[in-house]
Write a structure and sequence with these properties.
By secondary structure, this protein is mostly beta strands. The protein is built from 2 helices and 10 strands, in the order E-E-E-E-E-H-E-E-E-E-E-H.
């Protein structure tokens, strides 16, 4: 396999990477409309250049401490089965190239995120968890975790 571009994002004390090919846009969240009776992970919907985007909170999916206000936050958009989703993250950092030969299996401590995380790499001295965007939208059952970063 050849090296691929990945977008690095931060959620709490953790660093994640999403395949850049899956990412449509990185945007600032504005004018979000809450969605009654939606799952807790769904922060609401917004209009992004004429398309309705369902905003999912990565912190809530991962069982981390919640962010009180979403407006002004960053989101990464991607499409699944024709629907557009925005993943609310704490920060979108940069695009980096990751060689598949350097990807390690996630540690046993990441089992609670097994449906989201499928690998681990070291980039610029940081441990980065490779994540599946689809799993943030359709998360498996998982437990809460602490804010302490992975060793």
């Amino acid at each position: 396999m050849t090296a691929q571009d990945w977008l690095r994002v931060r959620v709490g004390a953790f660093r994640f990477a999403l395949e850049a090919e899956a990412v449509r846009d990185v945007f600032t969240i504005r004018d979000i409309t809450p969605t009654p009776r939606a799952p807790r992970e769904v922060m609401g919907v917004l209009n992004l250049r004429g398309r309705i985007v369902t905003v999912i909170c990565a912190r809530r999916v991962l069982g981390l401490e919640d962010v009180p206000d979403c407006d002004g936050g960053r989101a990464v958009s991607f499409e699944i089965d024709g629907d557009l989703y925005g993943l609310r993250v704490d920060a979108a950092d940069d695009v980096t190239v990751i060689d598949p030969a350097t990807v390690l299996s996630p540690p046993a401590s990441a089992d609670r995120w097994a449906g989201v995380v499928h690998g681990l790499v070291r980039v610029d001295g940081d441990l980065v968890l490779l994540a599946r965007p689809r799993a943030f939208v359709f998360p498996p059952a998982q437990g809460a975790v602490s804010e302490a970063p992975a060793p």
